[in-house]
Amino acid sequence: MTDFSIRPERAADAVARHIENLILEGSLAPDEGLLPERDLAARLNVSRPTLRDGLKLLQDRGLLVGEKGRGMRVAALGRAAITDPLLALLAERPEVEDDCLDFRDVVESHAAGLAAVRATDLDRGRIGATLDRIDAAHAAAIPEDEAEADAALHQAIYEASHNLVLLQVMRALSGSLRSNVAANRARLFTLPQVRDTLRDQHRAIGAAILTRDADAARAAAHAHLAYVRQAARDLAEARAHGETARRRQSGGGLGQRG
């Protein structure tokens, strides 16, 4: 015999661990509010003092925040991850937009392949519903709604990949480092011919995932990101040419032209 014994887990620790797991797997999203204390204690089948102890552990770890009038919420974990000064500097570099799309090509193609293999019925239903949102926004010619549905589709695919590291990395990159990409997405959706192509590409990715064709899903996602990358380059080039033409017309603002 030994003097070693396994100590049972405290109820507060179990509460904290359960909520941590929900945050890690993406079931609880950054900045999402939790149920009121009474309801949360009943749902977890613990006393309110035990619940408070568990929530305090998560607050101390920076996973939850309590705000007056808003109750307890998940911390803005993805946005906080991008506050590193080096990453903030990167976000200001124009070439980072192209680098980010290059990175997304690698990661999202793989995520689409994983989603084709791993997606549950719930995942597949969410992807199908998001594709319907894209179609509705496209038919109504509302670029802002279509851009939002586009982002929601990519998020649904990350979650359907059931790769926790991939999900959290891409969630973190939805902060300031990808703000320029988000702005560019909005610009792309103002161009009718581009919107048509993007809609068709999203449908191809979704169809491959829903039919569990991993190779087709990876290929469709790669084709989509390659197209977005080239379209973004074309937009940037056209914008630069326009600015140059305006400077030439005005002497760069320093000449004496009328």
Automatic annotation (TrEMBL):
SUPFAM superfamilies: GntR ligand-binding domain-like, Winged helix' DNA-binding domain. Residues 238-258 are annotated as: Disordered. Residues 9-77 form the HTH gntR-type domain. CDD domains: WHTH_GntR. Keywords: DNA-binding, Repressor, Transcription, Transcription regulation. SMART domains: FCD (SM00895), HTH_GNTR (SM00345). One of its GO terms (molecular function) is DNA-binding transcription factor activity. It holds the Pfam family FCD. InterPro entries: GntR_C, TF_FadR/GntR_C, Tscrpt_reg_HTH_GntR, WH-like_DNA-bd_sf, WH_DNA-bd_sf. Transcriptional repressor for the pyruvate dehydrogenase complex genes aceEF and lpd. PANTHER family: PYRUVATE DEHYDROGENASE COMPLEX REPRESSOR (PTHR43537:SF34), TRANSCRIPTIONAL REGULATOR, GNTR FAMILY (PTHR43537). This is Pyruvate dehydrogenase complex repressor. It comes from Paracoccus sediminis.
